[in-house]
Specification:
Elements (H helix, E strand, L loop, with lengths): L7 E6 L8 H10 L3 E6 L9 H8 L3 E2 L3 E2 L2 E2 L2 H7 L2 E7 L1 H8 L6 H8 L4 E5 L3 H5 L1 H12 L3 E2 L3 E4 L5 E5 L3 H12 L10 E6 L4 E4 L2 E3 L6 H12 L3 E6 L11 E5 L3 H11 L5 E4 L6 E3 L18 E3 L3 H6 L7 E8 L3 H11 L4 E6 L11 E2 L1 E5 L4 E3 L3 E2 H23 L1
Parallel strand pairs: 1-2, 1-6, 2-3, 6-7, 7-8, 11-14, 11-16, 14-15, 16-19, 19-20
Antiparallel strand pairs: 4-5, 9-10, 12-13, 17-18, 20-22, 21-24, 22-23
Helix pairs in contact: 1-2, 3-5, 4-7, 9-13
The structure holds cytidine-5'-triphosphate.
The site of cytidine-5'-triphosphate has 15 residues, from helix 11 and strand 19.
Length: 407
Amino acid sequence: MIQLRGKKILLAISASIAAYKMPELVRQLIKAGAEVKIVMTPAAADFVSPLALSTVSKNEVLHTVHEANSWNNHVALGRWADVMLIAPCSANTLAKLANGLCDNLLCAVYLSATCPVLVAPAMDEDMWEHPTTKQNVARLVGFGNKIIPVGHGELASGLVGAGRLAELDEILAHLEAHFSTVPKLLSQCSALVTAGPTYEQIDPVRFIGNHSTGKMGIALAEVLAAQGATVTLVLGPTSERVTHPGVEVIHVASAEQMLLACSNVFPKMDIAIFAAAVADYRPENVAHEKIKKAGDTLELKLTKNPDILKTLAAQKSPNQVVVGFALETQNEEENARKKLKEKAADMIVLNSLRSPGAGFGHDTNMVSIFQNDGTVQELPLLSKTETAKAIVQTILTYRNARKMFKD
Ligand code: CTP
């Protein structure tokens, strides 16, 4: 988290149960080298201890405009900060900020802040979905504030839905992206990535799937976004999370849904990487009711799924770069070269399930990149992020070489 070193972050905490996570966020910010000052609404102290916050931030925590005969200079605080992060932002505080109310220190600091403001809302789903909240969020965005999207999952009410405070690593990724000054090699570029397995439905309770977790494709999407690309990730069912704010995720289940989502965006993409482990076949008929146990054997008739990579590579324009993966357990090189040719890709990344530490579920991978000009690049065992960086670098070199050749 190199981008956060030396940055001045003003954390503003309002009254939401998620406030209990803030000492950990502050600890991670401090660890990343940031300086943190904290303001909170008076009611936020019911959910998190100011003593814990001042201990981890090594700064006094302020919650009222007047304290022990002194006046807290809210203007100075807003000017001190490089960024103000309002997390968690309750429905009440969100409404106050959207309407310019100023009845506590947090609101006063927000109103006078000259720095950029990031808002991480947290509330119950019904409150989050209420038209008033939607309007308030739109107003805050209209004023130039950035909203860190809420998460989906278990809520304090016991219900499950949208409205959770974004996970801490997502909040940190938004801050990182905010401060990112690294020259971006792909800032004018749009990229499509497919990742994860597909689930092909058999009946309402069963499906055909595979062990893919989508980690490699997610790493590629995040590396492309970190280089400034506008990334669309078409993601099959997985519990892996995407943290980079520059990645738009389209969730799909089946191969047919994946093809449809990809076809809609493919023509405007500069780069397309097909890293998903797509099921080659799906049940010919999906049973509407659960298939009941009957004889000793059960026959399922399967029909071929569309080949997403092959279908779209056949439509590619000369400026687009299309990259596929090959997952093999035997005759690896031969099969990779065959796929490169048959699918008309610009390159194929070979993944052998025989290499230890490579393939499904691992955080590491060992791949070789086969290009359509015959070159092969073998990478050592690396983390999936490092592998993704090397693949993206190869794509960049390939694109540049092709451009030079054309010019
Ligand atoms: N792929 C695809 N659509 C499919 C099957 C595969 O887009 N229906 C893509 C994968 O995302 C990958 C590449 O094609 O980029 C190769 O996938 P792989 O599973 O290795 O090979 P298959 O083409 O499915 O052939 P086989 O299973 O016989 O090895």
